[in-house]
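Quick start: what a row looks like.
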Amino acid sequence: MNRLEHLRSKLDKLDDEFSRRVRRDVEVPCSPHVTLDGRAFTAFCSNDYLGLAGDSRLVEALAEGARRWGVGAGASHLVSGHYTVQHELEERLAAFVGRERALVFSSGFMANMGIIPALVGRGDAIFADRLNHASLIDAMLLSRADLHRFAHLDTAALERQLAASSAGTKLIVSDSVFSMDGDVAPLRELMALAERFDAWLLIDDAHGFGVLGPQGRGAPAEAGISGWRLIQMGTLSKAAGVSGAFVAGEAAVIEWLMQKARTYIFTTGSPPALAHVLLACIDLIESGDERRAHLAALIERLTKGLAQERWKLLPSRTPIQPLVVGDNAAALALGEALMEEGLWIPAIRPPTVPAGSARLRITLSAAHTFADVERLVETVNRLEKTL
């Protein structure tokens, strides 16, 4: 068997395990109501939590930004690819989350891949929740620091690991909202441990920024934690509805990251037009209490409405509502049955989630209506009895 045939056999194995991912082409702008292959669906699988991705005000702001700034940066940020509008965005983000300074990256994955290896290396130690996002896992491995993973949300286990470590630099790493379970990390306890054991605390607030905290300032603001040890990463592609990510913290920390984060230094800057629209987006997040209240009401309706006789809805107060089905084939069958009903929720399977916990990751948006959620609840409850 040659290399190509071997690769094909591995793809066949993915099919046998019901593990191959399928990409679908959406034919309309991001919205809960989409078109796939000419057919209308109600989607419950986007991270557009505030419904801003297709907002007409942001569409116009992007067009205005392109007219003002063009469509490309031309070089890396530290050469000639950093623009005054990007500087303004970083200042706005830092003020919004209550930190001294912020640095914008092209994506959350690139941000995490840059932050962690810049802070720790050989001889240092990282302490990480087992359910952290893949970008954090890859960044931790890249850093070559000693990696200690603790059971999900188990701060007692984390405390024991920190107490046993003699590493020169310690870094605690956690998602704020866990992307596949929807639960929230105990940020106050993590901060207390960081202070007690002289560690940095990196919080990936990808799914909290814009949704949690006063005016959507994020999970750290909701928990009331701050200080120089705290480093907050947030994405601008989920609740913010656009693209990119940022890291915020004390000025010296951000300056160090700008000097050492390879994913910032060695990549072309993101288009300045995106910074222009993101400035408008932060304004909408800040004034978006009505959107967040509607989203909270949708979450309550869903969690109270699902029957959960065979399948289990994991406890979550966030827009991420995982319905655990079990094995891969069953989760795919449920997803396909919902597609037949005009509801789009792709099945999530290992290795994204642990074996035996394949699920539908239901995500809600402020752009959904109560009628959308009622329809989903009725359909899932019926399929649970008949599928």
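That is the whole record. The longest strand covers residues 320-326. The radius of gyration is 21 Å.
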